[in-house]
Specification:
The chain is α+β, with helices and mostly antiparallel strands. It has two domains: about 120 residues, Aminopeptidase (3-Layer(aba) Sandwich); about 150 residues, Gcn5-related N-acetyltransferase (GNAT) (Aminopeptidase, 3-Layer(aba) Sandwich). Helix content is about 30%, strand content about 30%. The protein contains eight helices and eleven strands. The protein has an eleven-stranded mixed sheet with strand order 1-2-3-4-11-5-10-9-8-7-6. Strand 9, helix 7 and strand 10 form a beta-alpha-beta unit. Helix 7 packs across helix 8.
Length: about 290
């Protein structure tokens, strides 16, 4: 697991999670909880490993979403590459996903990782979307330039998820539909202890035009914003008004870094994020295949 962080993790600051997670995994209370959840069939994720004479030479994680198995942290030991280890582990994960009744398998990959992309294509994955990661120091207090974003209460999350699905990228509506619990598969990046979240929307003429979900991860003092759905004609002023309460909230909790993940095409989002001192530092490609291929 300590070999997993690469260029993407360094660009986004997620490499700082390695030491935290390593220490967290040594807590006896965590393993007691996971053992109980596994016995009840409620394990939040599964890890698959490749073994060579009882030595771990590769690993990957798997989370079950409503219609897909989401694969993360695929890594092969540097001394054991080009032996088909990753292919074997992924094959096991595909079968596990199928056994759980999920028709799709999905993962995100750094577009510069050509070796991984070639492997995924060989296994039947197809590129379905690209997401741009804007990262920088948490901006100073933002005064909304127009309109007021409204915090979405829990009682309205199902309605908001339905709205997000209507604006979801067409290729993602079936394999990765929005739910009240998770608007975007990217929220898997925030599934860490003590993470807090809130959701805001903004409207025009009484109609919702955009929604953003914000997370605060205290272990790395980072605010993580995901524009889950928005009208293509959303103006820069509306974007800044939407993210203002989210950024201000994460700063109030001690956030020193802000990350905003925007799907292609970004519309006015890229210009708006740059104006806040949040340049695009990296991208990820979402790849999907049927679990039965």
């Amino acid at each position: 697991m300590l070999q997993a962080p690469g260029a993407f993790e360094r660009a986004t600051g997620f490499d700082q999670l390695s030491d935290f997670l390593w220490k967290y995994l040594h807590r006896r209370s965590l393993w007691t909880l996971l053992t109980l959840m596994r016995a009840l069939g409620r394990a939040p994720f599964r890890f698959f490993v490749g073994l060579d004479q009882d030595q771990i030479v590769g690993s990957a994680g798997l989370v079950m979403l409503p219609k897909a198995g989401y694969i993360f942290a695929v890594v092969t030991d540097s001394a054991a590459r080009n032996r088909g280890i990753a292919s074997h582990i992924l094959g096991q994960m595909h079968r596990a996903t199928q056994e759980k009744g999920r028709p799709w398998v999905a993962l995100d990959v750094d577009p510069d990782n050509e070796t991984a992309i070639r492997l995924y294509r060989k296994l039947g994955y197809e590129e379905k979307a690209q997401f741009n990661w804007h990262v920088g120091p948490t901006p100073p207090a933002i005064t909304p330039p127009s309109g007021v974003a409204t915090e979405v209460p829990k009682s309205k999350m199902n309605d908001m998820a339905a709205w997000v699905n209507l604006r979801q990228l067409p290729a993602l509506r079936d394999p990765l539909p929005a739910t009240a619990k998770m608007f975007s598969h990217l929220e898997n990046f925030t599934s860490l202890p003590n993470t807090q979240k809130k959701t805001w929307s903004i409207s025009s003429s009484g109609q919702t035009t955009a929604v953003v979900r914000a997370f605060y991860m205290p272990m790395i003092k980072t605010g993580f914003l995901i524009p889950a759905g928005y009208d293509s004609a959303l103006s820069s002023d509306s974007i800044l008004s939407l993210v203002a309460p989210a950024v201000n909230w994460t700063r109030s909790l001690g956030g020193t870094r802000t990350e905003v993940v925007v799907p292609e095409p970004p519309g006015e989002w890229e210009t708006s994020m740059i104006s806040l001192g949040l340049p695009r530092v990296t991208s990820t490609i979402l790849m999907i295949r049927p679990s039965t291929s």
